[in-house]
Write a structure and sequence with these properties.
single chain; 137 residues; alpha/beta; Rossmann fold; globular
């Protein structure tokens, strides 16, 4: 069964980068553009991992994370936060909320995969079998 990953970020570019990073793996990616949408998608989809941006409109990542941790059905889902701020106070704040790990933007795809692999099992997709060549009659 594919690992389900929820990417919550107001930047379509970041969501595309996250999707590209997980493309070689047996993963299903679901997306949301802000924390409010992210909570609704998390409740509906029950992802195995959430990649969550800190700074977003409507509802920011810290508020979403707080609400996730208050929900009995969602609080066990591991969360990796994406932040543009690497300041000690910012990192301590999200750590206190129970985030599993964090990445500072900009990040490399392999860094994301490494951190995600500590939270969930990532299985490489099987290569498509070669199409047999049928000789012309």
């Amino acid at each position: 069964m594919a690992t389900k990953i929820l990417s919550v970020d107001d930047s379509r570019t970041i969501r595309l980068i996250v999707g590209k990073a997980f493309k070689p793996y047996d993963c299903t990616l679901v997306e949301a553009g802000n924390g409010e949408e992210g909570l609704a998608v998390a409740a509906r989809e029950k992802p195995d991992l959430i990649i969550l941006d800190v700074t977003m409109p409507v509802m920011d990542g810290v508020t979403m994370l707080t609400k996730l941790k208050e929900d009995a059905e969602l609080k066990a889902i591991p969360v990796i936060m994406l932040t543009a701020e690497s300041g000690r106070e910012n990192v301590l704040q999200i750590a206190r909320l129970g985030v599993r790990d964090y990445l500072v933007k900009p990040f490399k795809e392999d860094q994301l995969i490494e951190k995600a692999g500590r939270c969930v099992t990532l299985v490489k997709r099987a290569a498509a079998p070669a199409t047999p060549v049928v000789p012309a009659a």
